[in-house]
Amino acid sequence: MKDLTKELHTQCMTMQMGPSHPAMHGTVKLLIDIDGEDIHTVIPEVGYLHRGFEKMCENSTYHQVIPYTDRLNYVSPFINNVGYVMAVEKMLGIETPERCQYLRVLASEISRLTDHLTCVGASAMELAAFTAMLYAIQGREWLWELIESLCGARLTTTYTRIGGVAYDLPEGFRPQTRKILDKVQSLIDDMRGLLEKNRIFYDRMRGTGVLNAEDCLAYGVTGPCLRAAGVYYDVRKAMPYLVYDRLDFEVPLGKAGDNYDKFMVRVFEMEQSIRIIDQVLAQMPEGPIAVDDPKVTLPPKEKVYNSIEGLVHHFNIIIKGIRPPKGEVYFAVEGGNGELGFYIVSDGSEKPWKCRCRPPCFPIVEAMPKMLEGAMIADIIPTFGMVNMIGGEMDR
Amino acid sequence: MAESITIRKLKERFGDRIKVVPSPFDGMDTVAVKRGDIADVCRFLRREEDLDYDLFRDLTCVDYINETPRFEVVYHLYSISHAHAVRLKARVPEEDPTIDTISGIWVGANWFEREAYDMYGVKFNGHPDLRRLLLYPEFVGHPLRKDYPIDKEQPLVQLREEMKGVR
Question: Reaction catalysed (chain B) (predicted)?
Answer without folding.
Answer: a quinone + NADH + 5 H(+)(in) = a quinol + NAD(+) + 4 H(+)(out)
